[in-house]
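Subject: Glycosyl hydrolase family 115 structure
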Amino acid sequence: MTTAGFEISRNTQVTISDVTNPILKNAQAILQRDISKTTFAGKEQNEICLVLDHDTASQSERYYFNLKEGKVTIKSKSSIGVMYGVLAVSRSVLGIDDFWYWMDTPVDRKESILWTNFNLNLPKYKTKYRGWFINDELLLMKWEDHDSNSYVWQRAFETALRVGCNVIIPGTDLTSHKNRQTASEYGLIIAQHHAEPLGAAMFARKYPNLTASYIKYPNLFRQLWKDAILAQQGLKVVYSLGFRGQGDKPFWEDDDSREWTKKAISRVINQIIKEQYEMVKKYDPDAPMAINIYGELTGLYRDGLLELPDDVIEIWADSGYGKMVSRRQGIDNPRVPILNVPNPHHRQRGLYCHAGFHDLQASNFLGLMSNSPAFVSSELCKARQNNMDTIELVNTGNIKPHILHLREYAKSWREDYQERSLTEILSEYVETYYSESRGRLVQYYKQYWENVVQYGEYEDETAGDEFAPFLIRRIIQAWVTPNGKLTDAGWLVNEGSLSADLKKIKAMVEPSLPGWAALIRNLEILLLEMKDQHNRNVLYGDLYMSAINQSAGLHALVNLIKAYETTQEAHEKDDLIYAFLQADNAVRMMNKILVVIKNNPSPKWRDFYENDADNDVPLTVKKLKFLRQYLRNLGDTADEDDWERRFVKLPGDARVMTLWTTHREMSDAKLADKLREILIDKL
């Protein structure tokens, strides 16, 4: 280890050996920015130079430092290696946390920083291709920071590099196409969504008036694939082979040109894979290729119907909830294990796994994953034992809500990674991001997973924050529709009637409510007791936001079901008052999520959730308000004054009617408040 020191100050200049290299320019900007953030005095002028050294014999991602005559050189054989070296200095010398942007981690500013340890090394990685898939990116798509959405994506790419990524899927569909050049300029290899083979444009968008049928229009598909490869020339790419329908579904759902047996399906897919493979070999011969054994391909693979080139990497997907089995799609839940699939061709294998997930039904979008990071750690170690670690693509969702799990995924890429307990993971996390109440915080994070609802037969089939709003909207629609039934809920209930379905859901959810209420109460007390504003901001934006989405959503769901049950059991119109108040409770609980979002103590994040179109809490609140009004219409008069006259007004005022009324009807919310006061002993 070199013992000489190098003093970093505001007068330290970061230079690059090639001003035309965009990766070096981004690395230069990051390091110069971090020096400005961490030092405030100008000392002797000196230099850190970032250099591409093509002659070094070291592995291409590795970096090394040289201090000579008051100048530090950061060298690597590759541009991404130089970037990794810069980020190592930022982390280990300047003290910048990998998730500084998302956690607003404070820095300890000093006059200058003496750099003495030049023995900083790239971690030894077991996983060759380490990637993030920034998917379901609705929040990131519309959010701006520094008056710029591009700035947000740049920070996402920087963070990916900080945790060790060398691969990125920089969004979905058009977002990915827009971002891939920028991501490449940060040094990242571009990969592709499993529904967007080769990164090609969607057929239905390019040809909106044509059926998306390869059988009918093979040449149009081939042109899209060729155009995509040519558009990515000059970028480093892991090409995704395969064929799915428009919008991430089986292709034959868009193609009625024939009867689709398994053999017919496999013939088309095999032909397409062969053509795509040959096309990549022609235009980008050294590029690696992968195929996602996902969805319908899982069954075809197990039946021996897929014909794949031996040098293609197989990517197998977890359940979306961290379990190493095939995902549930609607009512189809085969739970095919992915770890023990024979590999007679000895192809390289990897994983597509999730920290965030949007399955339109029960997953986590706005908050923490519903299975703990310790559960994920255990599953990842099982995958490694089965040599499924050539590539690992992690669905990050919108990053900020999922940092706890993203940190663990990044650690799992290292050679020395071993399964970790929940206490170990949480203690490290709390130690990193909080400076007070650490013991209590570890317990509160644990309570989050203790309270999570198990919706399915298996312990990993747990309900994320999408579960409650998804069900609330469908229950309301079924309720007010003649002979209504829950739509898209066969995976959860199928009891034959709405009443029986809701009874099952209530029995599943209601036992968790006291635990959720206790956790929210404990967190709100702690938020008041914390002395440091930064700690409050972190807790509020991390665990509290996740817990309130779960707790308020589930409380609203149960109140809605109680309102339905009360309505079904009503003997007279006045009984509907209680259903009206239960619906009002549901409105209040669901609206609490919006209040918590609006009152975020960190101004930076207050509008981050505005484009929530998956959980769609605003729409859910709107639907509940509609139901509350619907119940008032059933029980009150057409003029909406009877409940007020009989239950709210003083008896004398109610009887004296020289004027029929002296004011307009009360709002639903105000009437509910008044009725709750008067009927409190009967509720």
